[in-house]
Amino acid sequence: MSSREMFKFFDRDNETLVLKPDMTPAISRCVAKYFLDETMPLRLCYLERTYINSLGYQGRLKETTQTGAELIGDDSPEADGEMIAW
To answer: If exposure means fewest CB atoms within 10 Å of the residue's CB, which of 26, 57, 66, 67 is most exposed?
Structure first.
């Protein structure tokens, strides 16, 4: 996703604030920071608001709800099957 499709603001210290356009990077950062010592595989699910600022969304809501499930630490066919069945 290009930076032009993100909603960006600036705080009092001139730091850039961005509304989440997608949950995948946030989930990856969360796992890398908080769950490295957990027993794998790790199963996570989420339901979160995301925001996209795109000309292609003209006349549509720019706030959407993204839901997902992640199975981290297992790349077996059985893990793929578990995610499909979910």
So the answer is: 67
